[in-house]
Amino acid sequence: MTEFRPQDLAAGAEDVLPEGRLAEQLERGRPLRVKLGVDPTAPDIHLGHCVVLSKLAQFQQAGHTAVLIIGDYTARVGDPSGRDTQRPVLSPEQIAANAATYQEQAFKLLDPDRTEVRFNSEWLELPTEKLFELARAVTAAQVLERDDFQKRMAEDRPISMLELLYPLLQGYDSVAVEADVELGGSDQKFNLLLARHVQRAYGVEPQSVLTMPILPGTDGVQRMSKSLGNYIGVGEPPEEMFGKVMSIPDETMPAYYRLLLQEELPDDAEPNRAKRALGWRLVKRFHGLDAAAGAEQHFDRLHVRHEAPEQVEEVALEGHAATSDGQVHVPALIAGCFGVSTSEARRLLQQGGVKLDGKPLEAEPLDLPAEQLRGKLLQVGKRRFARLS
């Protein structure tokens, strides 16, 4: 087992609770069972998830047991942490598909041969008697203490009984896998501490809790989230990943360096060079060295030299909204080429977000002759292109 001091494993954490508990556990000299739970509510892991996954990998490198819990059961309930509304309910098929993707992407950071993967449907299909036993583990007052519940009650917004059960179910995960340590984002602090009460109720030694800061999204304001569209997915193409990194606000870079690279951004770092270095290192981490070099070259071609990408999908006008009289309905063409709705295509046209051979395409007329478009390069935003034929 690699020697890591408690302060090494706690580096970068927001909270390590109770104070001194992790150090005591490490002094025992046995491998700890370090738990991280993820609910597969979306198909992709983004860089925000990687902050905690990297910490789990660090414990794994130190010789401890990484226990990755795929919350296929709790995903049906929906974690209310950081939420001011109820989550939509996913189908079992969606959850299963997302769970498969989560594992594949998590193993870009974790050693699969040294990771214990568990699905909490193994133990949460509880008979009514067992569910009542779990419900007695904590009080309603304890559950309702959480900030997001308090906020919603103050604003007279609904809280479902399932959401009240969620922290108990997560706590029972810790009982089932005999967790010594549980990791999570800082928004998970309440759930992780409540799990200690659940463990005590079942006669299990309470876990220590380590929370990590929340990574801001590419907007630099709100937390990284797929639903907010400000995320960088670990499975995204190298060029997309690099381009998104280059769009991050300058003032957000210190947090990205600290949370994703575990190092401080030098005070005198030039923002553009710092973003290039970050983008290169992240693409290399998830896609390899050649992909990192290619992604930077692609970015320079599009955004420095303002040239078209080397490889552009060719789209036949006849298959995308060409009419019998030789006219093409431009919003339908944009929708067909780039997978957006026709209303979104009209909005992009009105905002000047569509270009034809590098020049903004006018919002009117909406119908253009096919021969005026054929052979031209259609562009939406900064990174999406199609060659019309």
Describe this structure in words.
Helix content is 43%, strand content 13%. Mean pLDDT is 85; it is low at 82-86. It has helices at residues 6-9, 21-27, 47-61, 92-106, 121-124, 128-135, 140-144, 147-154, 161-177, 189-201, 238-246, 253-261, 271-287, 289-304, 330-338, 342-350, 370-373, and strands spanning 15-17, 33-38, 65-70, 115-119, 181-185, 208-212, 314-315, 327-329, 354-356, 359-360, 367-369, 377-380, 384-388. β2 (33-38), α3 (47-61) and β3 (65-70) form a beta-alpha-beta unit. The strands form three sheets. The protein has a six-stranded mixed β-sheet with strand order 1-6-5-2-3-4, with helices on both faces. Strands 7-13-12-9-10 form a five-stranded mixed β-sheet, covered by helices on one side. A two-stranded antiparallel sheet has the order 8-11. α11 (238-246) packs antiparallel against α13 (271-287). The protein folds into three domains: 6-212, HUPs (Rossmann fold, 3-Layer(aba) Sandwich); 238-304, no CATH class; 314-388, RNA-binding S4 domain (Structural Genomics Hypothetical 15.5 Kd Protein In mrcA-pckA Intergenic Region, Chain A), CATH 3.10.290.10. The protein has 389 residues and is of the alpha/beta class. The N and C termini lie far apart (61 Å).
Question: Could you give the topology of this structure?
Answer:
Elements: H1 6-9, E1 15-17, H2 21-27, E2 33-38, H3 47-61, E3 65-70, H4 92-106, E4 115-119, H5 121-124, H6 128-135, H7 140-144, H8 147-154, H9 161-177, E5 181-185, H10 189-201, E6 208-212, H11 238-246, H12 253-261, H13 271-287, H14 289-304, E7 314-315, E8 327-329, H15 330-338, H16 342-350, E9 354-356, E10 359-360, E11 367-369, H17 370-373, E12 377-380, E13 384-388
Helix pairs in contact: 9-10, 11-13, 11-14, 12-13, 13-14, 15-16
